[in-house]
Amino acid sequence: MNAPISQDYLTVPRKLPLSALTNIVGLTRDQLRDALVAAGTPEKQAKMRVGQIWQWVYHWGVRDFAQMTNLAKDYRAFLAERFEISVPEIVTRQVSADGTRKYLLRIAGGHEVETVYIPEESRGTLCISSQVGCTLTCSFCHTGTQKLVRNLTAGEIVGQVMVARDDLGEWPQPGAPKDETRLVSNVVLMGMGEPLYNFDNVRDAMKVVMDGEGISLSRRRITLSTSGIVPEIAKTAEEIGCLLAVSFHATTDETRNKLVPVNKKWNIETLLGALREYPRLSNSERITFEYVMLDGVNDSDADARRLVRLIQGIPAKINLIPFNEWPGVEYKRSSWERIEAFADIVHKAGYASPIRTPRGEDIMAACGQLKSATERGRKSAAQIAAEASA
Length: 390
Ligand code: SAH
Ligand code: SF4
Description:
Layout: E1 6-9, E2 22-23, H1 29-39, H2 43-59, H3 73-82, E3 83-84, E4 89-95, E5 101-107, E6 111-119, E7 124-127, E8 131-132, E9 150-151, H4 154-168, E10 186-189, H5 199-210, E11 222-226, H6 230-239, E12 243-247, H7 253-259, H8 268-282, E13 287-293, H9 301-310, E14 316-322, H10 336-348, H11 373-376, H12 381-389
Parallel strand pairs: 2-3, 7-10, 10-11, 11-12, 12-13, 13-14
Antiparallel strand pairs: 1-4, 4-5, 5-6, 6-7, 8-9
This protein binds S-adenosyl-L-homocysteine (SAH) and iron/sulfur cluster.
C-alpha cells in the first residue's frame, strides 16, 4: 500500500465540551424559526431573521454572528448568547495520490466518522456518513464489523458538507464574480451507516443541503444508497425526492441473505416491488443498482443473466463495484476479465453498466473501507492482533 502523499494532524480536544447553546446547523427553516421565537425573537420578525441567518450560514459560510452585518448589533449579541454555528472538527485529513481526500471528523461524545471527497474531471462527489458504525452486518463491508454507536444528527450530516466546502475553499467571496463551477457538485450518502435507519435526520439534512438559498444542491445531485430498508423507500421518494441507489449485490435470496443479511427481512422480490414504485413516486429517472464483484460468489454469467431478468421493467443503471479488500475479510475481488464479462452481459441487455474505479485505496477511502479509528479501538486485543497479522 502506498503512503498517502499528505496527512495533517490537527490538535483537537479528545472530548468536546457539551454546549448549552443551540446549534443552528442542521435545523430546517421551520425548526430555526421555532428556535428563534422560543429564544425571544418577536414572531413578526422571525421569518425575515430566518432568511437572513440562513443566507449567512449556508450561502456565505459564515460561522460568527458578529459578521452578520445586516442584523442589528444587539440582535447579533442576543444570538451569540443562545446559539452556535458548529460543524464537526477535522481530526485528520488524508489526500490520496489520486486526489481523493478522506476526512476523519470528530463529533459530540468523542465519536468519529469519515467523509470522502472524490474529485473527477467534470464533477466532485462528497461521500458522507449517516451513522457512526452500522446496525447491519453485510459480510463484505468494513463498517459492518463495527457496532452502531449512534445516529448522526442532521447538523452532523450537513456539517460534513460544510467542512468539505471549508477545506476546499468553496464558499463564495463577497463581491467576487459568481463562480458556477462547483467543487462539491454531488453528494452521495454512501459512507458509514444505513441512511434509512436514520431517516428523519437524513431527510432534514438533505432539505438544508437542497435549499435554493444556501448550499443549493439539486435533488438530482444527491444519491442515497440503501441496503434495502423497504418500508422507508417510498418515504424517501416522497419526503426527499433524491436519486436512489440500492446495494443489490446478489441475484438469489440464498446469496443475498449471506451478503446483505437484512435480505432475510425484506427479500429480493419485496425489495424489487418497492423499487418499481420509486421512479414514479420521486419523479426521477432511474435507480442505480450497486453490485459488488466478489470472486466466485456472485460474479458468474448466470448471475448477470438473472440480474437483468430480475430488474426487467425498472429504469436502471448497474454500477459494478470491484470489491475493496480490508484486513481480515474472507472475500476476494473478481478478476478484471470476469467483471468485464459480467458488465458485457448487462450492457447487451440494454443497461448502462459502468465499472466503478476504486478511488483513494491508498488511504482506505474506497467504498466499504470506512471505519473509525476510535471505534476500532474498542475491539478485543485478539481481534486487533488478528487484523494486524492479516
Ligand atoms: N449502508 C448503505 C450505504 C453505505 S455503503 C448501503 O449499504 O447501501 C455504500 C456502498 O459500498 C454499498 O453498495 C455497499 O454495499 C458498498 N460496499 C461496502 N463494502 C464494500 C467493499 N468492501 N468493497 C466495495 N463496495 C463495498
Ligand atoms: Fe451497513 Fe451499508 Fe456496510 Fe451493509 S454495506 S454494513 S448497510 S454500511
